[in-house]
Amino acid sequence: MTMSKDLIKLFSIGLILFAAGFLLKSAGVAELSAASSAGENHQTFATADGLKLHAWISDAAKESGGQDHRHGLALLLPMMANTHTSFDPIVGKLNEVNYTTIAFDLRGHGESIISGPDTLLAGRMDKSEFAKMAADVEAFFLDFRNKHPHDYNYSDVVVIGASIGANTAGMLLDKDWVMRAVLLSPGRDYYGLQPETVMTGGDNPANKPVYFAVSVDDTYSAESSQWLFDNYSGPKVLKKYPGGLHGTSILRDVTDADKELISWLRPKK
Hints:
alpha/beta, Rossmann fold, eight-stranded mixed beta sheet, two-stranded antiparallel ribbon, 39% helix, globular
């Protein structure tokens, strides 16, 4: 009788352990599925020199009535020492006005630091590495367009950059796939990136619409923005804001700065 009770006890313990293991396994599967679902908008791309470039895609909402439509694309290029998350405050607002966003961790930043066997860190990169940023973004975009040839409105592509991302955006203005650019706190020269070479130099300078935004007390960027604005021959807008905020901080912390940018991107009909 004692043996029977012991067997029943062991069997009961076994059932409890099995049930606990099943629940833990199920929880693990659910966690994995949730992580996979959350990561569906995270894409990587191998550049020509072996850098694993990371970008995060947030699709614009469908039109009212649930009908699919083709969105414009906004490529978001962060400032020095920042990652794609620095654009989080404006991503949803861009989605609302029919832009799918592609937010990058630029070369040497965030997760975009593995290049073959090497680790690239922005604080240790030389100018030759910074010079590759524009080519990184273009290569990613062209690959993306090749994979999604009919899914987006490629006649409405805007590049929005902050600080060194702004310089990178300015240097992409001569690409036929770029329609407009937004330069938040650009400089005439950040780590060797000189947007004026594309915007004002040569026999055929870029002439696409450009939106400049800068804080008046951010001296170098303010002077650079004014110079670029004065010497750029294409359609242009220059917004000057009080204080000394830099780059994406302007959109986050200056009242209505984000609304003014959105209004420029999607003017009221």
